[in-house]
Amino acid sequence: PESITVAELAKRMGEKAADLVKSLFNMGMMVTVNQNVDQDTAELLVTEFGHNVQRVSDADVDIDTSEDVDPEDTLKARPPVVTIMGHVDHGKTSLLDAIRGADVAAGEAGGITQHIGAYQVTPKKGDPVTFLDTPGHEAFTEMRARGANITDIAILVVAADDGLKPQTVEAINHIKAAEVPMIVAINKIDTAGANAQKVREELLQHEIIVEAMSGDVQDVEVSAKEKTNIDKLLEAINLQAELLELKANPDRDADGTVIEAKLDKGRGPVATVLIKRGTLKVGDTFVAGPAAGKVRALIDDHGRRVKEAGPAFPVEVLGLGGVPSAGDQFTVVENEARAREVAEYRQSVLDKKRTTAAPMSLESMFDKKG
Length: 370
Ligand code: GDP
Ligand code: MG
What we know:
- By secondary structure, the chain is of the alpha+beta class.
- The chain is built from 11 helices and 19 strands.
- Residues 364-370 have low confidence and may be disordered.
- Magnesium ion binds at residues 92-93, 135.
């Protein structure tokens, strides 16, 4: 529909119609609750009230979890989700490996490390931490562009023997734009040319004042190669997480974000999902982007089958009817008919986009490869 009554719009937004009328009045429009407003005005109102804009005609079909807020007394502490960023060759991958090696839960249960896009570490001292295994700001920015703000804390890696480099600065800008707290890991302190103090001074030029310079951004000197101070870095993350008071309701139907997905020869479509809230269980019916499905199996980052996955837990999900994209929303729904309806609707939107998409510019093609 090209227009909608104020009353109907208010209902869909979960706001009082009178508040919408007041807001319209302030925009210079005299409208009563039973009068129509056009699509543009409706969108303006939706934004004005701080909701996500969704074409009003979509609201009947697609899922909008933004209105669905869990009551305070259902919330329980959850692990932080951490992304590692920094210049190429400064040690992002090495650091992720070193941190993975500090997982005490891994050794006990004897699983084999699986690279599924994210993993969870339980340090010797402290609480579990979830890491996104796809370092680099491309993944970070792309996820954010798709509305998936899943990172709670960013680790900025700077090699002590190289200092701030262009991609370090880019990473800083992305972290600032996302308003995500940062911890600086000054890496490669084992090298002969290491100068951690120089790194701290260079960071000042970007208004990052680390604790060693009496600021409030935690900085930790590490060596990913020698596995020095990995425990200290994990402690710093735990401390930052405590300050953030991260919570989620584990006792509800799950929703989360697709971290990566692929078509596996033997297993069919497989997606790694990071659960945002609720607990995902084998047998749950869900929709992931344009794919409907029913959980056939859940596999953790050590290749072990698990029965369920709670908040901030990354799991591989088997049982999808198609391959979603990274950043897609994953939501458990009440039944298969509903899952199919939403999946089909999203697919039709994608098809429409595909046929109307502008030809790629040379520039954007190079961007994609970068
Ligand atoms: P990325 O591009 O940021 O993922 O960096 P990598 O983890 O691939 O590391 C780049 C290079 O630096 C590799 O040759 C690593 O072995 C080396 N490297 C990483 N961390 C350290 C460290 O703490 N000390 C030393 N000496 N070398 C390191
Ligand atoms: Mg790497």
